């Protein structure tokens, strides 16, 4: 895949990733890369099973459910899209895989050692799973601090909350559930008065 990407041959790179996934079904990030590419190519019907499979690998990702819901919406599968928008809203910040990963991305080894409070020798004696657990625990403690800066992944997580309410409102409209759609619009606009899908749903609902 990297060879084809260097040659700027994205379709072949994605085909290489699909071959990899046939033997490495648990590779979440590669599955998402292919799904996102298929969506950009407007091949939502092919992207949808990849979102579904990614959810089986790690369901605790708000961005996954947001993206999967958008794909289902584009396919006209509004009840399923609503389900994903609602599931995305229920993912806790502290369990979100993208937030946990994003908080540690870009850290040097020395910064990681400072974060977990270990020496280099102690760190190297840990298994990969033990390292991951230590880092996740330290990140959760840091996130609980009032002055902890938000990572880009955490910012996206928070920004998607009003969007998911607004998208849920649009899905509810398609399903004829207008009272629930109004409530979802109110929740979205309380969080973000400029939320585009909520404003679209409000315009379609009209006055009471």
Which descriptors apply to this entry?
208 residues, mainly alpha, 13 helices, globular, disordered N terminus
CA-based gyration radius: 20 Å
* Tally of separate helices: 13
Low-confidence stretches: 1-9
Distance between the termini: 54 Å
Estimate what percentage of residues fall within beta strands: under 5%
Query: What is the number of beta strands?
Result: 0
Structural class: mainly alpha
Whole-number mean pLDDT: 83
Largest sheet data? none
Q: Could you give the order of the helices and strands? A: HHHHHHHHHHHHH
Query: What general outline do the C-alpha atoms trace?
Result: globular
Describe this structure in words.
The chain is mainly α and about 210 residues long. It has 13 helices and no strands. Helix 4 packs antiparallel against helix 5 (about 60-75), helix 7 (about 95-105) runs antiparallel to helix 11 (about 150-175) and helix 11 runs antiparallel to helix 12.
Quick summary:
This protein is mainly α.
Topology:
Layout: H1 2-6, H2 10-23, H3 28-40, H4 44-57, H5 62-74, H6 78-90, H7 97-104, H8 109-116, H9 120-124, H10 128-143, H11 152-174, H12 178-191, H13 196-205
